[in-house]
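Check these lines:
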Amino acid sequence: MNKALFLDRDGIINERIIGGYITKPEAFKLIPESLSLFAWAKEHGYLTVIVTNQQGIGKGLMTEQDLANVHTYMCAILAEHGFTPDAIEFCPDLDGTNSPRRKPAPGMLIDAANKLDIDISSSWMIGDSISDAQAGKHAGTRTILVGDYSDIPEADVICAHVGECVKILG
């Protein structure tokens, strides 16, 4: 079985737009420190799976094709540095719909684990919101929460910024 780093997109791989959505490629701004996560995964034999809530689709602010264009752009940037995500899972469902795939539900992680033969218990979920940590815990991964948090029971580890995560991973 494979091991994986499940990575939230906005706030971990790219700069989050507070109160907004990345609806086109030119709005995507890579967080350079995120490259260290891809490098660590590659070096240690982990798959990289991006799991991202994208309710902008559900709100009609963007289409699935718009999201595909953003992800194509993101993958091109990552490829320039020698990295290719093994999978990208997204959920367009609106908050409050009790969707089994929308974080904090674990559906995206479980679906990817089934598709890629991933051992969830040997994997990590890294995100910047409590719902990311909750999704990881519900799925059975270890979790790293990035940001200005103090004590979040769903998070195994809290890091101030993305660059610290590799130190935790070892």
